[in-house]
Design a protein that fits this description.
By secondary structure, the chain is an alpha/beta fold. It contains 10 helices and 13 strands. The protein has 2 domains: 184 residues, Response regulator (Rossmann fold); 179 residues, 3-Layer(aba) Sandwich (Rossmann fold), CATH 3.40.50.2300. A 7-stranded mixed beta sheet has the order 12-10-9-8-6-7-13, sandwiched between helices. Strands 2-1-3-4-5-11 form a 6-stranded parallel beta sheet, sandwiched between helices.
Length: 371
């Protein structure tokens, strides 16, 4: 019965809402989606929206976390002829809980049936808004089980993607690595990426019997944005001999790419394949943001009921990876990558998913941390 109600709901929307999507952009499962061909807003005739996304901080078009979460929202909505809109809270990178609460409330009042909220900073706003709108489904990306009936957390095994990137970097021949993270050392996703990166570098260094130097910092990354101060720090790293830096935090990427270009060095992207943004990117530690958003939206609409709890996605669900079709690695083969990935996917190789903001406090046989 619930499934039938869900189908009827979608059919009603098809005839009520204006069709804004480019049907040629999304052609079904397994086909490549041209996200840029899908409009960023699709309004209904009465000015309401079915699917909304509220960012926490940073820019929507960040080439990474926010943008690809939004891609999943609009791709699903376009495919199912649902209306959609994104909300960026007031004050941008300095947005407060009050700003996020207002944006979520505005989305609910505009008729949203589902609100996608990417970013760990959404917690307090969700606690405030979700109970007031119990019929609205909230999807908390990079979130967790909040114990609220209409909130589902979608989390990832970023440590697995970080591990693959760190391992690849050392196998490629880099021995002077850097990690520049967002969130000031308190963002769980970035912590897992970074700690996994160090674990992967250690494992590859042990296999090759080489020593690795690592610079590791959360400086200038609290708001996940590019800045002159961040670029100056990274310039200094490259001048001191760092060969590749894992840029882990929204538009911080831009500072890393600029510093790498000036030094004729390289960076590693995060969340999505960022090689299209800069020739300095050798690979990217990816998680399936758009795909997991579409899967969760489909579970809600097709299931006909609110979803709660937490979904945790990793290699076992093919939700983390390196982009083998676009990487510029020359000394580590796709065959060897696939073998390592299968070890993680099967559980034969377990990557520690502890939240560690300062890996230098742990003992590493082949890694020396440089302050």
């Amino acid at each position: 019965m619930k499934k039938l109600l869900s189908v009827l709901l979608i059919l009603v929307m098809v005839f009520t809402f204006a069709a804004c999507g480019n049907k040629d952009a999304s052609t079904g499962a397994g086909d490549k989606i041209d996200y840029d061909a899908i409009p960023d807003t699709c309004e209904s005739e009465d000015g309401t929206y079915a699917i909304a996304m509220v960012t926490d901080v940073g820019q929507l078009k960040d080439g990474s976390f926010n943008q690809f979460t939004w891609n999943g929202c609009k791709a699903y909505a376009s495919e199912h002829e649902l209306t959609y809109k994104y909300y960026q809270p007031a004050n941008g990178a300095q947005a407060t809980d009050a700003d996020r609460i207002k944006a979520m409330t505005d989305a609910c009042e505009a008729g949203a049936q589902v609100i996608v909220t990417p970013g760990f900073l959404q917690e307090n706003a969700l606690k405030e808004v979700a109970p007031k709108y119990p019929e609205v489904q909230f999807i908390f990306i990079d979130g967790w089980d909040m114990g609220i009936d209409n909130v589902v957390g979608v989390a990832y095994h970023e440590e697995q993607a970080g591990y693959l990137a760190g391992y690849a970097a050392v196998m490629e021949g880099y021995t002077k690595l850097g990690f520049s993270g967002g969130g000031g050392g308190s963002n769980p996703a970035c912590e897992r990426y970074g700690y996994g990166f160090v674990q992967g570098a250690e494992a590859a260094a042990a296999e090759k019997d080489v020593d690795v130097e690592m610079r590791y910092s959360w400086e200038y990354g609290a708001t996940f944005t590019a800045s002159p101060d961040l670029q100056t720090m990274l310039n200094g790293w490259f001048e001191a001999g760092t060969e590749v830096i894992f840029m882990c935090g929204g538009t911080m990427f831009n500072s890393g790419a600029a510093a790498a270009e000036a030094a004729e060095a390289n960076i590693i992207g995060v969340d999505v394949d960022q090689s299209v943004l800069s020739d300095t990117v050798v690979t990217s530690a990816m998680k399936g943001l758009a795909e997991s958003v579409m899967t969760t939206l489909d579970e809600f609409y097709e299931g006909g009921a609110l979803i709660k709890g937490e979904l945790r996605l990793g290699a076992a669900e093919d939700a983390v990876a390196l982009p083998v079709d676009s990487w510029s690695l020359e000394n580590w083969s796709v065959e060897d990558y696939n073998a390592l990935f299968e070890q993680i996917k099967s559980g034969d190789l377990k990557v520690d998913d502890s939240l560690v903001s300062d890996p230098s406090t742990k003992d590493w046989e082949h890694i020396t941390f440089i302050k």
